[in-house]
Amino acid sequence: MCPHAGQISAVTSNSRVLVDGQPALTQSDTLNVAGCAFVKGVTPSPCVSAKWLTAATRVLINGKPAILQDSTGICEGADQTAQGPPTVVKTQVRVKGI
Predict the structure, then answer these.
(1) In terms of Cα–Cα distance, which of 70, 97, 91 is closest to 20?
(2) Cα-based angle 7, 90, 73 (whole degrees, multiple of 5)
(3) Where are the beta strands (DSSP E) in 2-98?
(4) Which has the closest alpha carbon to 7: 88, 73, 80?
(5) Rounded alpha-carbon distances, angstroms, from residue 72 to 19, 39, 42, 79, 87
(6) What's the pLDDT at 37?
(7) Whole-angstrom Cα distance, residue 56 to residue 33?
(8) Nearest to 51 by CA among 37, 35, 65
(9) What are φ and ψ of residue 45, in 5° steps?
(10) What is the tens place of the pLDDT at every residue in 7-63?
């Protein structure tokens, strides 16, 4: 979720590595935000995308760094201004990477 309760959906090119039946995310995956209600003053300024700033250093998926439970990211408005970190609401912890 974005910091303003917008829902983030991931579009990944990874179809080979699954975690709990879902494709594992990589640092280069596209993250779209929908339903963000953020307003600057009186002007709507919703988060529209997010990106991962940190990812695994030694775990790669198709040559791209994997997203881990402790990875950090940032949500951005349409003008690409930073609007706060995303909140991860579901993770899978059976596999650990560093």
Answers:
(1) 91
(2) 60
(3) 7-11, 18-19, 22-23, 30-34, 39-40, 43-44, 47-52, 60-61, 64-65, 73-77, 82-84
(4) 88
(5) 19, 23, 29, 21, 9
(6) 95
(7) 23
(8) 65
(9) -145, 65
(10) 999 999 898 888 878 888 999 999 999 999 999 899 999 999 999 999 999 999 999
**Residue 26 DSSP class:** B
Instruction: Determine how many CB atoms are found less than 10 A away from the CB of residue 24.
Output: 20
* 3-state DSSP assignment of residue 97: coil
Q: Is the CB of residue 85 less than 8 Å from the CB of residue 73?
A: yes
Predicted model pTM:
0.84
Sign of the Cα pseudo-torsion (23, 67, 79, 44, in order) = positive
69-57-87 Cα angle (round to 5): 25
